[in-house]
Design brief:
- The complex is a heterodimer.
- Chain A is α+β, with helices and mostly antiparallel strands.
- Chain A folds into two domains: about 230 residues, Rossmann fold (3-Layer(aba) Sandwich), CATH 3.40.50.300; about 110 residues, RNA polymerase II/Efflux pump adaptor protein, barrel-sandwich hybrid domain (OB fold (Dihydrolipoamide Acetyltransferase, E2P), Beta Barrel).
- Helices cover about 25% and strands about 35% of the residues of chain A.
- Chain A contains eight helices and 21 strands.
- In chain A, the strands form five sheets. Chain A has a six-stranded mixed sheet with strand order 6-7-8-3-9-10, with helices on both faces.
- In chain A, strand 7, helix 5 and strand 8 form a beta-alpha-beta unit.
- In chain A, helix 2 crosses helix 3 and helix 2 packs parallel to helix 4.
- The longest helix of chain A is centred in the middle third of the chain and has 18 residues.
- Chain B is mostly helical.
- Chain B is globular, with a radius of gyration of 25 Å.
- The chains are: A alpha+beta, B mainly alpha.
- Chains A and B meet through strand 6, helix 2 and helix 4 of A and helix 10 and helix 11 of B.
């Protein structure tokens, strides 16, 4: 994407999006359940969750293609709930790109400007600028079917940003690209978004995508926003078991809180007890959660909790070795960095697992 | 990559016998198409371009055609009627298509049922009934002149043909256009709304252009059908159109007169031209945009006033479309119906007369249509299988050859059959062209393209892995075909048979020339003969009602059978 063209939207005019108390049902299914969110001006914000979690429904709600049963959606402080899609000034890039096959690339990009009845000269100028911005100036006369998937995606983007919308909505924009293109294009998207300074919502089910480029993420499941925050914060401090499981690999260990001589401990079966910090408030039925890379095998630091564990097997994942172990009654995974010449521990060996005191968390469902 | 090439090589090596069978099947179908499609068509073209007697190439016949006022006028009239019919058919079909695909509308099923209208009754049957209702002294004009002192020339001259044909054939546009509209991905519309487009502009700029392929397909079909229709203009006493001229020329002057052939060639050229134009319009415009989970255009709820207007419109159109049927029913029970809005009195005498005199027509029709339908599904399924499942070198030509019949108007095929088979004498000196089996072959050839498409679509939906699984478990290709493929195709084959049967049962364009004696005549011919005299109209109408009932009963029966076979198979999705 070329940096020469003037960005259609001037940074500094970015707006915020506020979603409050939004409920939406569809044919008896309660799809969005009391969604409250705030997207800051100029932010690249992800709706992340498994399919069917309501993320696309929420995006379409902002675009005006779904209507909320209750709740408000405000853009720059203005309630847009009653506006039809064509009056919202909210640009959306569709998952399928939705390029009109009967129009050339240029006509596709010019469409929104024509609908706004702009003077012909402005339409031509802004269409070319948008095409240049996505590096497709030479392709204006082609039909969408004559472009590659990545190029089509850029046309869809150019078409949307040409009208200088207040906010940009991207519905799984990378899902129709191959793995290599996905990584390339997501960085292009990020740099374009930063140049334009436009408040953008990015819907994806791919946590890596969201982590890599988004300022903040809302993790969604079953129509409920589970957690909102910066990628690293969410990863390090998941609010519940779903978020822990959905973002990266997590060991989730069941057990029972017991009192032992005035102190609490978490009994994970077969006589293995994990110490519980004194002042920690732990919900009833909570489970102990830690990441595979948080524990160390064989040698730990002072103060780490040392737990014996039985090696069950080992998978080689390239840069790491992922051990499968039995810790108490639980099956867990622990990662160890792989170096050439390194001899992995064999199944059946008993190793000592060192877990830093603050590495794990007790989380409820 | 060798793993991909492997299985094909193995099956090719291991089944020389099968391949010989494929070749034999392909060659026999090729022979059938050559003899019964290509040769008759070629003989028409040959006569048109050669000098009588010497056989030398000449354009003099076409020169004569261009110099004869009657023929030139007929050409323009045919083009005019075709174009106007498409226009009026659009006027009727467009609102219905938009209504059913873009709004939540309870009448949608009713409108879709209209799709059967052109199948169950040929337009000429309705023509006489429409004359009773809309003619100069028909019901509507009598009422209009009573109340408002005006008369509208619905049925005068070419107007009558246009009126009858557009009422009859608009469902072709409705069905194709609706299918196209339904296949548009919802995001196509939403993307436009998102960029600020709505309402009529959205319809004009995005929705209708995307539906263009369906519209073009429907419109060209209507145009060709109108060109093809011989009996409607004849019954409305419009002689200066191309199809009637070709027919009159051959029947009044004789099979040897070249002018009939010249007209036939012009008819074929125009049909082909029209289809080529439609193909050109839709070239590179395969806008099947529906994506996985896309699910068609968004349907909007109508406001109260809109609902009322929509129902009023649909009721009006339905009444108009069903008026030939209503008129036919009235006529079949009418004693005298002349210069009065409704018949003077009612009687069942026409039915009594028809039952006593015309049982033969019914028997012939069922015989011809069943045999024709049978030939169509056997040949159609065989071609579909050869094209989709074998590597036979000339297999695509079989498809093209069978589909070419679409471009041959019925009257041309009739003339071609007379020309090609009249000189073929059976032992005893009877010309082959005069045997009733020729009628069967002609209707079979005329309907083959539709049966072929039905079989083709049915076979295309069956994954080859189902056959491969059978072969993997020990079935030979032949047995896999019989035990797996054919049972799964039943619905499609049956649909093809019904379409062929229903339309063959009311075919007249080709058969009018081929019926040599009253004892060989099918229903449509009988209706035509009755309808020509005012005294026979009642009986003709009764026979028309019987034809409609037969076709409807068969269609419903087949629909039932298809649905049952599909519930057995389970939902294909």
């Amino acid at each position: 994407m070329s940096a020469r063209a003037n960005p259609p939207a001037a940074p500094g005019r970015a707006v915020d999006i506020e979603i409050a108390g939004v409920n939406l049902s569809y044919g008896g299914n309660h799809i969005l359940k009391g969604v409250d969110l705030r997207v800051e001006p100029g932010e690249l914000f992800a709706f992340l969750g498994p399919s069917g979690c309501g993320k696309t429904t929420l995006l379409r709600l902002i675009a005006g293609f779904n209507a909320a049963d209750t709740g408000v959606v405000k853009i720059a402080g203005k309630d847009i709930g009653q506006l039809p899609p064509w009056k919202r000034d909210v640009g959306m890039v569709f998952q399928s790109y939705a390029l009109w096959p009967h129009m050339s690339v240029r006509r596709n990009v010019a469409f929104g400007l024509e609908e706004r009845r702009l003077p012909r000269r402005d339409i031509a100028r802004r269409t070319e600028a948008a095409l240049e911005l996505v590096g497709l100036s030479a392709f204006g006369d082609r039909k969408p079917s004559q472009l590659s998937g990545g190029q089509q995606q850029r046309v869809a983007l150019a078409r949307t940003i040409a009208v200088e919308p207040k906010v940009l909505l991207l519905d799984e924009p990378l899902s129709n690209l191959d793995a290599k293109m996905r990584v390339e294009v997501r960085h292009e998207l990020r740099s374009l978004q930063q140049r334009l300074g436009i408040t953008t919502i990015f819907v994806t089910h791919d946590q890596e995508e969201a982590n890599a480029i988004c300022d903040r993420i809302a993790v969604m499941n079953e129509g409920i926003v589970q957690q909102v925050g910066a990628p690293m914060d969410i990863y390090a401090h998941p609010a519940n078991l779903f978020v822990a499981r959905f973002l990266g690999a997590a060991n989730i260990v069941s057990g029972k809180m017991i009192a032992r001589g005035g102190e609490r401990a978490f009994d994970i079966g077969e006589g293995v007890l994990l110490p519980v910090p004194k002042d920690k408030i732990i919900a009833e039925g909570a489970k102990f959660v830690f990441r595979p890379q948080d524990a160390l095998l064989g040698a730990g630091a002072d103060g780490d909790i040392a737990i014996p564990a039985l090696i069950r097997g080992c998978a080689f994942l390239g840069s790491i070795l992922r051990y499968r172990l039995k810790m108490g009654a639980a099956d867990i995974f622990v990662d160890a960095p792989f170096h050439a010449g390194h001899k992995p521990l064999a199944a059946g060996e008993v190793a000592v697992l060192y877990l830093p005191v603050n590495a794990g968390r007790w989380l409820a469902g | 990559m060798s793993a991909v090439v492997g299985p094909e090589k193995i099956s090719a090596r291991g089944s020389a016998g099968l391949r010989a069978g494929e070749a034999a099947l392909g060659l026999s179908i090729a022979a059938f198409l050559l003899v019964f499609v290509m040769w008759p068509a070629a003989s028409v073209v040959y006569v048109a371009f050669t000098e009588k007697g010497t056989g030398a190439f000449t354009l003099v016949n076409f020169h004569d055609f261009a110099r004869t006022d009657l023929f030139v006028r007929s050409l323009w009239n045919s083009l005019y009627v075709g174009a106007m019919t498409v226009l009026w058919a659009c006027v009727i079909a467009l609102p219905l298509a938009v209504l059913t695909t873009r709004f939540e509308f309870r009448g949608a099923l009713l409108i879709q049922t209209l799709g059967f209208v052109p199948l169950i009754m040929p337009p000429f049957v309705g023509a006489v009934a429409l004359q009773m209702l809309f003619g100069r002294n028909g019901t509507i004009n009598l009422l209009l002149s009573d109340w408002l002192d005006v008369k509208i020339p619905f049925m005068e001259g070419l107007n009558g043909v246009i009126f009858v044909e557009s009422l009859h054939y608009f469902p072709f546009i409705l069905i194709n256009l609706s299918a196209s509209l339904r296949n548009i991905d919802r995001s196509m519309e939403e993307a436009a709304q998102n960029l600020g487009s709505s309402g009529f502009r959205l319809l004009r700029r995005i929705v209708l252009p995307l539906a263009m392929p369906g519209f073009a397909a429907g419109a060209s079909l209507v145009f060709v059908k109108v060109f093809d229709d011989l009996a409607t203009p004849l019954l409305l006493n419009v002689k200066d159109m191309l199809a009637p001229q070709a027919y009159l020329r051959v029947t009044s002057i004789g099979v040897a007169d070249p002018m009939g052939y010249v007209i036939a060639v012009v008819l074929v050229a125009l049909s082909v031209g029209c289809m080529a134009l439609a193909a050109l319009v839709t070239r590179g415009a395969d806008f099947a945009t529906a994506q996985r989970g896309g699910g068609g255009l968004a349907r909007r709820k109508m406001r109260r006033l809109e609902t009322v207007m929509a129902y009023a419109l649909v009721t009006f159109i339905l009444l108009l479309v069903l008026s030939p049927h209503i008129g036919l029913l009235l006529l079949s029970f009418a004693t005298i119906w002349s210069f009065s809005p409704l018949p003077d009195a009612y009687t069942t005498a026409h039915y009594a007369r028809v039952f006593s005199q015309s049982a033969l027509y019914v028997k012939n029709t069922i015989l011809y249509a069943s045999l024709g339908g049978l030939i169509d599904i056997v040949v159609g399924t065989a071609i579909a299988w050869l094209v989709l499942r074998t590597k036979l070198p000339f297999r695509h030509w079989l498809d093209r050859g069978a589909t070419a019949a679409l471009a041959i108007p019925g009257v041309v095929l009739g003339i071609g059959y007379l020309r090609a088979f009249y000189d073929v004498r059976l032992p005893g000196g009877v010309p082959l062209a005069t045997l009733w089996i020729m009628i069967v072959l002609a209707v079979a050839v005329r309907r083959l393209p539709y049966a072929l498409r039905a079989s083709y679509a049915a076979l295309q939906q069956i994954s080859t892995s189902l056959e491969e699984a059978a072969e993997n478990l020990g079935a030979t290709p032949g047995r896999a075909l019989r035990r797996i493929v054919l049972p799964l195709m039943t619905g499609g084959i049956l649909a093809g048979f019904v379409t062929s049967f229903a339309t063959a049962a009311v075919e007249l364009s080709a058969t009018l020339l081929l019926v040599q004696s009253n004892s060989d005549a099918p229903l449509a011919y009988g209706i035509y003969v009755f309808m020509q005299s005012p005294a026979g109209r009642g009986a003709g109408a009764a026979l028309g009602v019987i034809a409609v009932v037969i076709v409807c009963a068969c269609a419903l029966g087949a629909q039932f059978a298809i649905e049952r076979s599909q519930t057995v198979k389970g939902d294909p999705h």
